Amino acid sequence: MAISADAIDRRRRRRRGCVILLAIAIRAAWAGQSALAAPPTPAQPAPAAEAPPVAPASTTIAGGGTTLRSVHINLPRSDSTFPGGAEADAINNNCLICHSAGMVLDQASLSRAAWQGEVEKMRNDFKAPFAAGDVPAMVDYLVNLKSVLAQSAGRQPDARHGAVIVAQGTTAGAPPCAQCHAFNGVSDASGAFPRLAGQSAHYLAGQLRDFASGVRASALMSPIARALSPDDVADVAAYFAGVNAPLLPLKAPDAALVKRGEELAKAGGPERLHCDNCHGPGGSGEPPVIPYLAGQYAHYVAFTLQMWQLGFRKNSPDAMEVIAKKLDDQEIAAVAAYYQQVNSPLKAAAK
Ligand code: HEC
Ligand code: HEC
Ligand code: HEC
Question: What pTM was computed for the model?
């Protein structure tokens, strides 16, 4: 995703006054340490004038060798992401869960030592949920931020070219995405293919890279993703992210199953954070990092949770893999049924 600093600035949206609740599964080794840590107190007033300082309230739920931690935070956010493809993912996935890319870019010319200090401050004072081992790669990226931005400034994702790929495929052999996902990204009522419409470009592009690398294995999608160039990936992701498509009318699901799913989605359990904790109210998503589930097909949601259980989907090892493995078949069927209908016009009929 090639976005220049300038573009990020212009596109920055303020979302004030909303509480973002995020959570992450952390390995027991440093879960213990962070659970014991004193409540976060920012060491000094933050220089960022755009947002009032906040002390994130952190809570932990432990069980089965892992700890899920959630952090309440209230900062400006936006859907912009850092450029640089896979290299930027550590930053995109770990930094943008709390605040906008613009907030980091305001500091784009810090020294290595200063970035080191910033990242450690995020982790220690603000309880950013990443492991100490991830810090060096993040600092490397941040130190080079200016040159990465300069290199990527030349190209913006081209959603119109994305639409051409969706309709016609590519000369390198990718078939038209519309064959399975429909031109508007709603796929079809079979639920065999996920809905892509309106999902964040960052998430969609990340999944395509994961299909190509095999981090997410799919007999259908992996060869298709390998036939896409990095520019194709950015373009097609930008296209689907921008589509506002209706929900297809689906058969009313079993009311008892939906009710059980709603409980899991909203309340969770003793060893598990509820899904909406990360996926947003009613599964509406927390872009750019966390996909929406609202309106996603039950068949696909159940299928992909099983892929995590079976080890065919290896992205999100610290969050979704842990969470999927805590769900039994009935619970999977229940959350899947709940999210499929959550925004549906037929919802009232199902109750
Ligand atoms: C758990 C939430 C969280 C995560 C994750 C997070 N931050 Fe922050 N960040 C904050 C808070 C809280 C502030 C302070 C905001 C304020 O004072 O207005 C902040 C402020 C900043 C600032 C402004 C300067 C400052 O020190 O206040 C920069 C730059 C920054 N973060 C960079 C990063 C980077 C880079 C990452 C990823 C390595 C990251 N943040 C991840 C919560 C987070
Ligand atoms: C032959 C059918 C088919 C075609 C053509 C196809 N897809 Fe897919 N797509 C699938 C299936 C099946 C899945 C679910 C795979 C899985 O989870 O293992 C999927 C999943 C995806 C996902 C993951 C979505 C999510 O919510 O995680 C993305 C992104 C995607 N496809 C993009 C594309 C793009 C872009 C194209 C065109 C270049 C395309 N697909 C063409 C069948 C197809
Ligand atoms: C700790 C935060 C967190 C919690 C809690 C959480 N998720 Fe997720 N979920 C994520 C993240 C992050 C991703 C994106 C993973 C990736 O990049 O592939 C995701 C992705 C997913 C996907 C894939 C969507 C797609 O289009 O392929 C499904 C399905 C899902 N989550 C279901 C659930 C359900 C059901 C629950 C509750 C039982 C839940 N999640 C709880 C963080 C969370």
Answer: 0.79
